[in-house]
Amino acid sequence: MALINGLDTEKLLQVVEQVKQNWEAGRTVWKASSKWKGGFQVETSSREFTINFDEPEMLCGTDTAANPVEVVLQAYGACLTIGFAMNAAVRGIKLEDIQIDLEGEIDLPGFLGLEPPESLNMDKLPGYKSITVKIKIKGDADAETLKQLYEHVISTSPVGITLSRPVDIKTEIEVL
């Protein structure tokens, strides 16, 4: 077993080979659920893992946890970090450090259902208008190789790609 960046590269390459041999194996479904805990507190779960959410006091929350839009940034940062670790490992690049800082701008009027004055240049649509990502990486490869790794990771990040394009969302309601 070859361990690079704490990952079993042989096993990673086996997964890649399995998907190459059977493209249907690459079709996956992920699930999550969400339960209201009162106020702005929410508990979400996927498989056997839970994450709590809240809003900061400035938005009338109790500031007991990150809010959903902060977790979107965290999810993108985690996805990029995983992408760097995995893609570096299968290339034989040993990483010493990955640091990713993310920042996003959201105008509250859209979330609050308000029409902002045109002079303020705010969008009435809720959600991120832009996300800035700053990545610092250190490994046993030259700068050009790490830049190529960066290009590959950015272009294959499931969370990044999801954030950058429209996604078909279907919702339904059951009144209890």
Plain-language structure description:
By secondary structure, this protein is an alpha+beta fold. The protein has two domains: 31-65; 67-165, GMP Synthetase, Chain A, domain 3 (2-Layer Sandwich), CATH 3.30.300. 35% of the residues lie in helices and 26% in strands. It has five helices and seven strands, in the order ββαβββαβαβαα. The protein has helices at 9-21, 68-90, 108-112, 143-156, 158-164, and strands spanning 3-4, 7-8, 33-38, 41-46, 49-53, 95-106, 128-139. The strands form three sheets. The chain has a three-stranded antiparallel β-sheet with strand order 3-4-5, with no helix packed on it. The chain has a two-stranded antiparallel sheet with strand order 1-2. The protein has a two-stranded antiparallel sheet with strand order 6-7. Strand 3 and strand 4 form a beta hairpin. Helix 2 (68-90) packs across helix 4 (143-156). It is globular. The mean pLDDT is 94.
The percent range for helix content is 25-40%
Element string (H = helix, E = strand): EEHEEEHEHEHH
Structural class of the helices, strands and pairings? alpha+beta
The fourth-level CATH homologous superfamily of the largest domain is K homology (KH) domain
Arithmetic mean of pLDDT: 94
- According to CATH, what is the topology of the largest domain? GMP Synthetase, Chain A, domain 3
Please tally the helical runs, counting DSSP H or I stretches of 4 or more residues: 5
- First-last Cα distance: 52 Å
CATH class of the largest domain: Alpha Beta
